[in-house]
Design a protein that fits this description.
Structural class: mainly alpha
Distance between the termini: 7 Å
Radius of gyration: 18 Å
């Protein structure tokens, strides 16, 4: 990976952590999530006139990514109910990081060097440490772990769909804009199925606008990297978002900086040069 690819993946991770922290800090996170997705879709509609539509070969991947995204969100929300965000989120991301490596090898023939594989394993270990730190003294129910594994598998699967789709689309921008629209449509469908009706954007636009902008920028950055760089190392770097989330929680929410969290941050930092070399 080039220095530009590494920087873009890390910036994507930082933006991803930032907008997720804003959603979690809102009074109604599910509604805030839905509002930012819908507003993001509205914002990118004019951009499609600039980028054009993705090439026909990408639409199957777009459909698959959208379906997998809905399934993953459903599994995540159920896992959060049973196990809590602090435990579930890092474990989901670590499962996804580890699964992307064999998926990429099977689907694209991607071969990684020893340094890259070691870097990916280190990031997975850092994420597991965060989950362990959150779980100490609480444990996690078997059902929560089951939903967590489903969410991790779904995350890895839609990462591969996006990585394949963006290469078939001819433009990361066209692909990203199209998926943002289809994801918003799927989220609205899910809201209706859950009996929640129309997503209230009007009363939430002040929060939703910067969150939607950060979310879209994060997504487009990683799509740009996946359009030409190795998938698994870039996905692993993007999943350092969990590490950035910890730093945001410590600095912004004044949460404690435990030894486990310090170790996770140091491990994630050590992985970056390995992924660059690999």
């Amino acid at each position: 990976m080039s220095p530009a690819d590494v920087a873009a993946a890390l910036l994507s991770a930082l933006l991803h952590a930032g907008w997720n922290a804003a959603v979690k800090a809102s009074r109604n996170p599910p509604q805030a999530m839905a509002a930012q997705m819908l507003l993001g879709a509205i914002l990118v509609v004019p951009a499609l006139f600039w980028s054009g539509l993705p090439k026909p070969g990408a639409w199957g991947w777009i459909a698959a990514s959208t379906v997998l995204n809905v399934v993953t969100i459903a599994a995540l929300l159920r896992a959060y109910e049973l196990g809590g965000f602090g435990i579930v989120y890092p474990v989901v991301r670590s499962v996804a990081v580890l699964l992307v490596v064999p998926f990429a090898a099977m689907l694209t023939g991607e071969e990684l060097g020893v340094a890259a594989i070691l870097g990916i394993l280190i990031i997975a270990a850092a994420l597991v440490l965060l989950g362990w730190d959150a779980a100490r003294g609480h444990g996690i129910a078997r059902a929560a772990m089951g939903w967590t594994l489903v969410a991790g598998l779904g995350t890895a699967a839609y990462i591969m769909c996006d990585a394949q789709g963006v290469r078939a689309a001819g433009s990361p921008w066209a692909y990203g804009f199209a998926v943002s629209i289809t994801n918003a449509m799927a989220m609205y469908w899910r809201q209706r199925r859950a009996g929640r009706g129309w997503i209230d954007v009007g009363s939430r636009w002040a929060m939703a606008l910067p969150v939607a902008t950060a979310s879209m920028a994060s997504y487009l950055l990683i799509l740009w990297v996946w359009s030409h760089a190795p998938i698994a190392p870039a996905a692993a770097l993007r999943d350092t978002s969990a590490i950035f989330a910890i730093l945001i929680a410590v600095l912004w929410l004044k949460e404690p900086f435990t030894r486990m969290r310090i170790a996770a941050v140091l491990l994630a930092a050590a992985s970056v040069p390995l992924l660059r070399l690999g």
